[in-house]
Amino acid sequence: MRDSTHPSSLSTLRPAPLLLGVCDYPEHVDPASWPEHARQQRALGLRFVRLAEFAWSRLEPRPGEFDWAWLDRAIEVAVAAGLQVVLCTPTAAPPAWLVEAHPEILPVGRDGRRRTAGSRRHADLSSPAFREASARITQAMAGRYGAHPALIGWQTDNEFGWGDTAQGFTPAAQAAFQAWLRGRYGTTDALNDAWGNVFWSMEYSDWAQIPLPGQGVSASSPSHVLDFMRFSSAQVASFQADQVALLRRYSPGRFVTHNFMGFFSAFDHYEVAAGLDFAAWDNYPTGTLGALDEWKLLDPAFALTYARTGHPDVTAFNHDLYRGLTGAGRGLWILEQQCGQVDWAPSNPLPAPGAVNLWTAQAWAHGADAVTYFRWQAATMAQEILHSGLLRHDGTPDRGAAEVAGIDPARYPCVPVRNRVALLHDYESLWLYGAQPHAQHLNYWAQVFTYYRELRRLGVDVDILHPDSPLDRYDLIVAPALTLMTPERARHLHAAAGRSRVVFGPRTAFRTASGRAAQTALGGLLAQLTGARLQNFDSLPVGLPQAVGGHRADLWAESYVPEDPATEVLHRYEGGPLDGEAAVTRRGLVTLIGAHSPGLIGEVLAGALRAANIPTLDLPEGVRLSRRGEVTLLQNWNARPVTWCALELAPVSTTFLRTAEVQARAAPHLHPSPDPPPAASAGPRLKEST
């Protein structure tokens, strides 16, 4: 049961306002400064502090001996200043005594080298000794603080998988993987058949013969990789579930969440989030901008446009992804929000003036019920000395503090986010795509993000969901890279296509649940749905484009053969080995796109949106709309002013508009044009610019 103070417990009369908090590390500073820090935090408008994230060595300095005095005092000081508390289980940073007593807990990397203590996440989740010690500290913390009246919730661990630790390569991990495979397949014959191990004489006759993938002379079988990723994800999920069960038992009525990372691929986040009240993630917009460079989606010179803000769609994508992890309609939390420069990207520029305000507002507009700034005071020690906080190293307020002080949480009502468009995403498709990408500079994230970005350019709000989620309330369903297909999933999508428009992207239904290639065109039932079968695919080297429908396809092009008289060919390839073959087909409400071409994708999506009677807009570069309830947040991520619909948008700013007024202002630019709203419904325009 959620505590009634939690912002997701929305009053039917008055929605809760956005909660603002801060990640604090009182153990890093002189205890004499704690009361003044708490007073300053409350004066900034902060409502809670997140504590004890990496404090295992202070909480349990020796095995089974606990020192609670310092944390007791830190909580007392926070409460005295009017602050509430989010506590973290400190299991992401095992103490040195645990490593000394049980060196087998240390992880082994993909290179076969055993890691050491001296950083964080230096533990193998398959280690019984580590699991036992983690359960002990979690139970002790929950027993000590679980009923504290100031405690509103828990964060489990920290950033699962950070430092490439989601996959274990220890002897314990190998034994656990072999046991997992035995439980899944029952016999080695069944495993050999599922994996296709007759290929290259890879057949196994004993479970002990099965190695961990990635250690061979060349690439491992994609089926082997897929199952290892499933196993590794299950290890993370079971570790999380152990903590969640203890927290539920000893700390009832408080929320439980975890802080995930943006675009992280190494485990199934839907599986790991299954027991949480809501998902959370750590939002660092300037740091995650590097994803676009990695995917070659922005010209390097153009990327500098967003160097001090991050890209709006990169950040929004992760908000929408994590909002959807635990089911449509729930909110999310930001448990770490950048408030100055970071220290871990290749370069770490200062954010633009107004960026902290912009990031906070955008997070709320995409469903965040709370934003937690990282961190309170910049660290004067160890690995994060160059990372900013709301206070500088000397304790004086930094630039981000001034922006936080100007935020009025009451202007951010935490109502549910309701959208008409769903974008489908799953990690098994991601893993299979990554095991055999077959195209330089094109990966699963880049393909999925391209569809998302085109939707956002058209002014459309998006829910990101697992493909097996309920889809009945959506008017348009977009599946950019749904590579893994099962009969059950195909039937689910077939039912969805009976009432909603559906757009599929390349590599759809190319793999079965075991990772083998589908021998029936587009997965059998899905072939009936699309009315087409895959003919050829062409991995295009950089600089060798393929013309299609007046657009340019780069990196990937696949063609189809219509197999139903009702299947229309919307676009054909022009020139090259695919000349004249179908690139985009449509049968009834289902469209299939084979070319990786942002322009073509945008055109097809715009047509599908109009057909679904979802209005679209042509938004200027760097300008985005996000809707929550009756409010539309208009954002300018550019370092220059922009005029849109007779509104002057200041650089790096937000403008709050009543949704009805947006429709009235944008009516001449909407496709299709909506009926004009009644004049009385427009209301006054609320504007906040920084």
UniProtKB/TrEMBL annotation:
Q: Where is this region: Disordered?
A: 666-690
Q: Which InterPro entries match?
A: Beta_galactosidase_Trimer, Class_I_gatase-like, GH, Glyco_hydro_42, Glyco_hydro_42_N
Q: So what does this thing catalyse?
A: Hydrolysis of terminal non-reducing beta-D-galactose residues in beta-D-galactosides
Domain Glycoside hydrolase family 42 N-terminal as annotated: residue spans: 25-405
Keywords attached to this entry: Glycosidase, Hydrolase, Metal-binding, Zinc
CDD domains per UniProt: A4_beta-galactosidase_middle_domain
Write the protein's name. Beta-galactosidase
> Which organism does this sequence originate in?
Deinococcus depolymerans
